[in-house]
Design goal:
mainly alpha, about 0% strand, globular
Length: about 90
């Protein structure tokens, strides 16, 4: 199963209100962290513009200073990465 499929499963579980059942190999937050780790500084600034997530929030998440960001933030980032990978 692809990372993208696992992320979609996690999104479905979160949308259904069952946050505690995200037990897949890679949960939604880890999917986003993995993608953020690949981003360079300039890319983070563009990501902030593309998603509406403040640049400072992206930095805190990337640097692991925020361990539990809001679901809406993670969802915006996951949606962005999912769309980007679908067109790649």
């Amino acid at each position: 199963m692809s990372e993208l499929s696992l992320a979609r499963q996690a999104i479905w579980r979160l949308h259904s209100g069952d946050i505690s059942l995200i037990k897949s190999d890679m949960d939604l937050f880890q999917f986003v962290l993995d993608r953020l780790d690949r981003e360079e500084e300039r890319s983070l600034q563009q990501l902030a513009r593309d998603t509406g997530v403040p640049y400072s929030t992206l930095r805190y998440i990337k640097e692991r200073k925020t361990r539990s960001p809001r679901f809406e933030t993670v969802r915006k980032l996951a949606d962005h990465y999912e769309a980007r990978e679908a067109t790649a």
